[in-house]
Amino acid sequence: MMDITAILHMHAELSLTAVFILMFLLDLFLPAPQRHWLRPMACILLTIQLLANLWPEEVTLFGGMYHSTPMVSVLKSILTIGTILVFLQADTWLKREDTRHKQGEFYILTLSTLLGMYFMVSAGHFLLFFLGLELATVPMACLVAFDKYKGHSAEAGAKFILSALFSSGIFLYGISMIYGTAGTLYFEDIPAGLTGTPLQVLALVFFFSGLAFKLSLVPFHLWTADTYQGAPTTVSAYLSVISKGAAAFALMIILMKVFGPMTEQWSEILCIIIVATITIANLFAIRQNNLKRFMAFSSISQAGYIMLAVLAGTPQGMASLVYYIVVYIAANLAVFGVINTIEQHTHGKIEREDYFVNDSGFLIFYIAALICGSLFNIDRNLLLRATVKLLPVAVISLSMGILLSGIMGIILGEGFWGGILYIGVPMTSGGMTAGTVPLSAMYSQALGVEAADVLTRMAPATVLGNCVAIIFGGLLNNFGKKHPETTGNGVLVNDGKTVKKTPPLKPTFASLCTGMIIAFAFYQIGAILHRFVPVIPTYAWMIIAVVLVKGTGIMSEELEDAAREWGQFAIKSWTAAALAGIGFTLIDLNTILKTLTPLYLITVVLIVGIITFTASVLGKLVGFFPLESAIAAGMCTTNMGGSGNVAVLSSAHRMELLPFAQIVTRSCGALMLTIGGILVQMVG
User: Fold this and answer.
1) How many structural domains does the chain have?
2) What does pTM read for this prediction?
3) Which of 72, 112, 170, 569 supports an S-S bond with 210, CB 3.0-4.6 Å?
4) Does residue 355 belong to any structural domain of this protein?
C-alpha cells in the first residue's frame, strides 16, 4: 500500500502549491483598493519558496514515477528566478486600466504553468510527464489570450491551444506505441524493452514531434511568431524562456534515460532538425519588422542551439544545457523587458522603425552621444568662429542647388517651379521625418490633394539625394588622400593655427556612465525646449545647449572628458549597427526603383554636385579646408537628417564634423520648410 506521507518529500512542488493557494486567497479576499499588494506578495512568496529549496536532494517516490535529482532541483530554482523576474516586468502592464482587475488571474495562471514544469522535469513516468506538460500548457493558453479584447491576442490564444492540442495528440499516440512495445511507461524500465523495431522508431518520432511543437523546432514552429506577436509582451517573455527551458531539459532527460538504446536513430533526426532550425529561423528573423515576431524567430533559433547540448547526451552536455538556459533566460528577459517598457510608454509601438528612429529609439541615443562627444571635443573658440562662417556658406551653396533643380525640372517635364518644389526642396529639407513628411502635409493642404500622393512624388528625391551624398563622401575621402593640401582630416577651419589635440583618455566604467548621463541630459533639455518652441527641432536645441555650455566653460574638464569618451565609445562600438539600421529602416529601395530613370538620377547627382562644389569654393574663401567645407556645408544639406549625417560622415571618415553637420542640417532644413510652404502657396 502506498504511503501517502511520501508526498511530503516533494518539497518544491508542495511549497509552490502553497504559494498558489495563498495567491488565490489573496486574490479572492483582498479589496480593490488593496490589490496593488498582489505583485509584491507574489514576488515575496516565490522568493521564500526559492530559498526553502536551495538545498537539493535526490528523491524517488511512487515506485519511480517521481524522481528529483540535484540537477533537477537547480533547474527548478532557475525557472523560479526567471518567473520572479517576469512578475517584476509585468508591473506596468498589470497596472493598466484594462488589466488591473485581472492581476490575480495572471499570477495564478503563471504559477500553475510553473508547477506543471516542475512535474515535467521531475517525471520518471510518461503519465506524470504528460500531466505536467498539460498543466504547463493549458494555463499558458489563457495567458496568451489575456488581452482578449485585442484581436491579435485572441487569435494568438486560439492558435496556441490548437497547436497544443495537436502536439499533445501526437505525443500521446507516441507514448501509446512505447507502452505497446515495451510494456511499461516507467523511464527506468523502458530501455530494456527497446530493440529498435520500426514501431519503436515511429513511437520515437511521434514523441519527439509532440515535444518539438512545445520547443518550436523547425518544422514544428509555425505557431510561434503569431503567438508571440499577439500575446502580451510579458507573456511572450515567459513563453520564450521559462517554458522553453523546462521543455528542453525534460527532452534531454527522456532521450538519455528512455531512448538511450536508440541514440543512433534520434541523433540523426536531431542533427537535421538542429541545422534546419538555426538556419531557417535566422533567415526569417531578418525579414521581420515587428520586434516580437523578430524575438519569436530568435527564440526558435536559440532552441536549435539548446538542442546541441541535448545532442551530446552526456552529463557534461546536461550541465552545459543548464548553464545555457541560465544565460538565455537572463538575456531574453532583458530584451523583452526593454520591449515591454518602451511598448507601455509609446502606446504599443513595437515595429522596428519605432525602436530605431522614434523618440526613444537607438538612433536618437546614438546621435545624442555623438553630438555631445564631438562638441565637447572641439576647442570653444574654434567652434564659435567656425559656426558664424559655416551657415552663410551652406545657405549660398543650397541656393545654387535649388536653382539647378528648377532648371532640371524643365528638362524632366516638371516645370521650373515643379523641379524646385518636388526635387530641390525635398532633397534639402532635413530628411524624411523632419522635412519631406511635413512638406507633404503643407503641399496637400495648399493643393487639395492627398498627402500620400505628394509624399510618393517627393520621397525619391530625398532618398536618392542621401544615397548620392554618401557616395560623394567616399569619393571625397579618396580625393583627400591623393591631395592632402585640400583637407584638414576632420578639422574644418584652415587658419594656420595648430588645433590642440585632446589627448586620448582611458575610458572607465564610471566615466562612460557619466558621459551617457550627460548626453541623455542634454537630449532631454532639447526635447523640453522643443515642446515650448516646436519650430526648432530637438537636436537643434540640444546643439544650442551644448554650444552654450561649451562656450561659457561652466562644465568642468572632467565632465567634458566623460562626454567626449562616451561619444568616442559610441563611434567605435555602434557605427556599424547604426549604418545597418539606417539602411533597413530609412532607405526604401522600392521607392527608389519606381522613380529611378537615368535623367532623374543625373538630376540628383548634378544638384548634390553643384552644392558640394560651391561649398568647397566658398569654404576655401572664408578660411575652411575645401574638402571639410564640401562635406559639412554641402553634402550634409542633402541627406536624411541625423541618420543621413551619420551615414555621410562615416563614408567620408569625418565623424569629427558631426556637430557642424547637425547645425547645417537643422538650420537649412527649417529654412527649406519655410520656403517650400511659401512657394507652394504662391505658385500652386
Assistant:
1) 2
2) 0.58
3) 170
4) no
